[in-house]
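ERR on first pass: missing label on line 2. Operator R.T. fixed the label and resubmitted. Corrected input:
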Amino acid sequence: MNEELELFLEDSEEQLTYMENALVAMQENGVNEEDIGALFRAMHTIKGTAGMFGFDDVVSFAHVAESLLSEVRSGTVELTEDMLALFLLCKDHAQRLIEVASQNEEVDDALRETNDDLLSKLLILTPGTDAKPIQNKTNINIKTEKADSSDKEELWHIGITLHEDFFTSGMDIINTISYINDLGHIQTIKPMIEKVPLLQDYDPIGAYIGFEIELQAVTTKDEIEEVFEFILDDLDIEIFKKSDQEELEEKSKEKKKVQKKVTSTKKDEKPKPKHFSLRVDSSKVDQLINQISEMVIANARIAGRADRLDDTDLLESTTIMTDMLEEVRSSVMNIRMVQVGDSFNKFKRIVGDTSKKIGKDIKFVIHGGETELDKMVVEKISDPIMHMLRNSVDHGVEMPDERVVVGKDAQGNVTLSAYPDAGTIVIEIRDDGKGLDKEKILAKAISNGLVSQNSNLSDKDIYNLIFAAGLSTADKVSDISGRGVGMDVVKRNIEDLRGTVEIDSTPGKGSLFTVRLPLTLAIIDGFLIQSGMTKYIIPLEMIQECIELSKEYKEKMHGNEFINLRDSILPLLSIREYFNEEESQADRDNIVVVRYGEYKMGLQVDELYGEFQTVIKPLGEVFENVAGISGGTILGSGEIALIFDIPKLMEQKIKETR
Amino acid sequence: MHINSEKITIYEVEEICKEFLSTLKNGEAMDVNLDGVVKIDMPAIQLLVSVLKTCKAQSTPFSLSHVSNEVKETLKVTGFNTLFGVNDE
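pass 2 clean. output:
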């Protein structure tokens, strides 16, 4: 697949998402101008970009949908509930047409039938169109007569001059010209070749041509301009009615004046800064992050050397360099950050469709859509969230009559929230359904041999058994969930992102899934410590404080593995003992207090070195089963430091305590 | 000169441009044989225009031959059919 097509597909996906978000928002909150505008723009953009690639079926379909939307926008047609549902189907259909076109496949009969059916429905609703069902089974080319455009056919002049860098924009002017033909009938097209140089002075990728087109059509200047919407920055264009001879003459006079003026005024004009968004292949950003990671390591090496040499100037320079690298790193990381709301909005339709299908009435609310997370993490977390949501809808929330019997509103509630917490992003899925059946889960787990009959499990442990492979307590398998092959995959996918997932539930009140994810996957702010002979990194944002394990504390421990820290019990984990490290000669024992979610723990360590920009490097298979280590990093000295997986260490500690 | 490719697009024009330059040095008549070419884009059409203009400047005869229907259609849509003397049969 070539780069342009990939960009088109990415853009289309974005536009289809806008479309769906606008439609679902209107289904929820009622019709409003802003969402109608968003819907129209998305359909219009798809039509325009598909036209650039010659995807005629997409263009024809989007054109009809866009025409109806144009009527809706102008207030001629009222957007009803039924039409919202119809446009949702149109969005799905456009998506399928794009897939087929981009893979160079033929439109099959079934898809053609859907196409014709949807087009008929759209045309019936569009004023001023012949609403006959479409019989044309080949290429569909339907023109709607615009109520607001002039109904008189006129001759239009379109003058185009390509900018010299036009060809490098990747846009195809041939498709654009073909597309003009859809507006009416091109009477003449005259290429302007005067500026094309002779071969010896020729730049093969420079554009030197232009066109004079005469178009006979019932259209408006705006409609013609729309055809060029996506390439307006790459060419000069002139559009006017041939009948407006005066305008033509005026234009030529103006042109002469402007040409004279240009030389004198151009010098005075200051170029205005132009902001635009740039679509970049994510692998290029990844490459940049990798390069910065290497620079961070190299800089740490220089800093280490400067320290050993006690070279003040060099140390000062490395400090400046460290600060600068941190800024660059943070800026680059920011490129990858996206608001989760854009991705979450698609769940509205999934929840809506799923609940409708099984006869449930569910109010779905999203909180914290503005929370930012690495784009890759957002993409990878989408499936697990979808699965958990379906579970809540299918198994969590009761049927309306069951809810009424137990004194609840017939309408159930499912909430999806996101918020940052201690260097992680928390995503919660909460429902007010019947909650999990503890006995049923335990019985199933025992019968599956996942736990023994006599195991002493807390309520939370039992609930979290639903993440074990092959455990589904659903009485009947539905096509929504209940095959028992989902929740273990959910957990594994989340753990692959260095995240955790937990479930809590209250019988009769509902369930809560809590997913915690790291902000980024490449570089973190770490805190360097030593225990025994090994250096370790603790993610800085999980650290609450560092204290000395003084004699007083030790005396009060009475051999227990916890201390009383300001009237609360803090469990301790001795890193030296946990990883079988050698005794150290450190003068003092230190405790690093870490927090993850609602848990706190003290890590007993020997040396505290301070903050360290940590480039996360994966460890090989040897370390795969070492619980509590999530990766490694290279220090300035060339030594390796191991990065703690704090949630895993806490899990181990909790298990040990029991 | 025979264009030995199914398509002439922006990706091929640089190479083909070099071939045209060396062929034109000989001062012989330029017949661009498009046998087998089914796709042509605007950078390629523009290159042919440059070749045509160069031939005219050198008073060398220029012609296009074995033009496929697909290429004819593209030349027609863009209005270059008249310039190259390529019309529907």
